[in-house]
Amino acid sequence: MNHLISSQNVEKKLIKKEILRHPLVCGGCHTLLMYNRGATSVQCSCCHTVNMALEANQVAHVNCGNCRMLLLYQYGARSVKCAIRNFVTSVGGSESAAEQKCNS
């Protein structure tokens, strides 16, 4: 019987496990969280905030209209609030407010 586990097999399993994990910054306390691929939400172990976990193809980005911080948001959202400045940036949906005004 072979009771020894080779270090190569252990290393391969660890690498495979890490590939299936994704990073997420908690919206409540800004702690870096790791979650398993396919999860829809992640609860922070520090502040207990429940954060939405989105796949890469469900996320868009925009710069904050106040501080220019890069903000991520779910496709379809009309606005996104900056966690640093509490500034709400409109992301418009199908047309921006300026385009709608010009078309009126």
From TrEMBL:
Record-annotated Zinc finger LSD1-type domain positions: 26-50, 64-84
Assigned keywords, A-Z: Nucleus
Compartments (UniProt record): Nucleus
Pfam families named in the record: zf-LSD1
Tagged with keyword Transport: no
Top-level taxon: Eukaryota
Keyword Hydrolase annotated: no
PANTHER family for this protein: PROTEIN LOL1, PROTEIN LSD1
Name of the protein in question: Zinc finger LSD1-type domain-containing protein
